[in-house]
Amino acid sequence: MTKTTKAAIEATTESNTEANTGALTKHHRSAVRKASIALLAAVTTFGMAGGAFAQTVGGGTSDTSSAGNTNGGGLPQIQTQGDVSFTSGGVGLDESHALIREQAHWPLSLRFTGPTSDYLSDVHVRIADAKNAEVLKTDAMGPYMLVKLPPGHYTVYARYKDSEKKQGVTVAGNGGAKADFHWSMQ
């Protein structure tokens, strides 16, 4: 217990005793007021320090468990559909930085933008292989999507609102294929 908190508690106890006896003087009211302010300051300080501790331990911008993330480093949750793994997001800074950083480790990277390069989410994504067989059908949860596909030729269909675009991509064994989709409508 700090000296300030102890003094505030003693002054409050003292003033309560005097109040009960009816002998509360002007001097004592001033002491009670000061002690109350000191007690309030101590409680507020502890509350802020406790909140900062909670952010350091389990929250804040370095939180790797946000949005169901168990992958670490801010990367959104990795999902699978058949033999294809993917992740999407990038609405927050930690996610967008993690997705940009991880692009080199994924065979295919997609980005969705609107007018004036605004980032888009809720883009419907469908990927078909060279035989036009669908290998992935999902919705992007943000402007970035990373996809693990076997090497080959694919067509990526991206639909935002009522406008669909498509791009052919070739995924090599070491990855690095990228496709950007841009819509001029919001």
Indicate the CATH architecture of the largest domain: Sandwich
Main β-sheet, in a few words?
A: 5 strands, mixed
Give the termini separation. Answer: 57 Å
Count of discrete alpha- or pi-helical segments spanning 4 or more residues:
3
Low-pLDDT ranges: 15-24, 43-68
Number of domains in the coordinates?
A: 2
Fourth CATH level, the homologous superfamily of the largest domain: Immunoglobulins
CATH class of the largest domain, named Mainly Beta
Structural class: alpha+beta
Provide structural commentary.
The protein is α+β, with helices and mostly antiparallel strands and 186 residues long. It folds into two domains: 3-58, no CATH class; 66-182, Immunoglobulin-like (Sandwich), CATH 2.60.40.10. The chain has helices at 3-21, 26-58, 93-102, and strands at 79-81, 84-89, 108-113, 123-129, 134-140, 144-148, 152-160, 163-171, 177-182. The strands form two sheets. Strands 1-2-6-3-9 form a five-stranded mixed beta sheet, covered by helices on one side. Strands 5-4-7-8 form a four-stranded antiparallel beta sheet, with no helix packed on it. Strand 4 and strand 5 form a beta hairpin. It is elongated, with a radius of gyration of 29 Å. Mean pLDDT is 74; it is low at 15-24 and 43-68.
